């Protein structure tokens, strides 16, 4: 009955599907769910090597890699699916849709090797989550119910329910149907660019004030570096480096 439930769920969510027979024969998202049920059954009973062999065979067949230790809920639909990777300690709720190229990975924990074995190091997805193609959700984080993750986003922090996440690194732009203002969730990319601009203007001001510099030796005139009036620019330095913050994964 659960397999039939998965078939009907695909028919409901994919307008390209025409019949149950087509889904059973032609949909890798359905094939990999059947294989994972077998692999997970073996994994829970201690037959880990056999379980990994089953998951690897499914990977070759479907292009989707699901570790047999992953916990997957009901009516999960992996659409197209090529390149999807789901790690060992991942937990996926019910009615989740995952598109091609998605990675549910371990993030920084993967670099710890065997030291992180047996620990929760992959994400937890709530019910009704939709993950767009090419998105990455990394680390032991929680993505709440009914979250939408935009294609190509990289999510590194917990996401509250009923949110829309966009960007690299991912940040919440809608929550409960209301647009999140820039004051509550800053645009770290814009802040990084502003920081670089302020530093450049500060350097230009220092160069312009130095009496012993031959400005003719520059290939490009100093005034061409910026359209702003450097004398009227106030450079704010609070000791933080937005560029460094951005590169270390801030955003949500």
Provide structural commentary:
This protein is an alpha/beta fold and 252 residues long. The chain folds into 2 domains: 2-179, Hexapeptide repeat proteins (UDP N-Acetylglucosamine Acyltransferase, domain 1, 3 Solenoid); 188-247, no CATH class. Helix content is 31%, strand content 15%. The chain contains 6 helices and 16 strands. It has helices spanning 2-13, 20-26, 28-44, 48-62, 188-209, 242-247; strands spanning 65-66, 71-72, 77-78, 85-86, 91-92, 97-98, 103-105, 124-125, 130-131, 136-138, 142-143, 148-149, 154-155, 163-166, 171-175, 178-179. The strands form 3 sheets. It has a 7-stranded mixed beta sheet. A 5-stranded parallel beta sheet has the order 1-4-7-10-13. Strand 14 and strand 15 form a beta hairpin. Helix 3 (28-44) packs antiparallel against helix 4. It is elongated, with a radius of gyration of 24 Å. The two termini are 40 Å apart. The relative contact order is 0.08. The mean pLDDT is 83.
């Amino acid at each position: 009955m659960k397999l039939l439930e998965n078939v009907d769920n695909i028919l409901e969510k994919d307008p390209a599907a025409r019949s149950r027979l087509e889904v059973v024969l032609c949909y890798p998202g359905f094939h990999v769910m059947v294989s994972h049920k077998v692999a997970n059954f073996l994994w829970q009973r201690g037959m880990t090597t056999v379980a990994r062999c089953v998951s690897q065979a499914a990977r070759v067949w479907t292009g989707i890699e699901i570790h047999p230790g992953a916990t997957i809920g009901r009516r999960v639909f992996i659409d197209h699916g090529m390149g999807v990777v789901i790690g060992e300690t991942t937990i996926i709720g019910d009615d989740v849709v995952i598109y091609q190229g998605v990675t549910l990975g371990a993030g920084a924990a993967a670099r710890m090797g065997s030291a992180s074995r047996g620990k929760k190091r992959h994400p937890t997805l709530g019910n009704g989550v939709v993950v767009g193609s090419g998105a990455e959700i990394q680390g032991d984080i929680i993505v709440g119910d009914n979250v939408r993750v935009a294609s190509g986003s990289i999510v590194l922090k917990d996401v509250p329910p009923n949110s829309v996440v966009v960007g690299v690194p991912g940040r919440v732009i809608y929550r409960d149907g209301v647009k999140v203002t820039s004051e509550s969730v800053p645009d770290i990319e814009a802040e990084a660019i502003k920081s670089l601009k302020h530093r450049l203007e500060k350097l230009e001001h220092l160069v312009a004030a130095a009496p012993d510099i031959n400005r003719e030796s520059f290939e490009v005139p100093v005034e061409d570096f910026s359209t702003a009036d450097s004398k009227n620019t106030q450079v704010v330095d609070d000791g933080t480096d937005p560029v460094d913050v951005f590169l270390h994964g801030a955003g949500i």
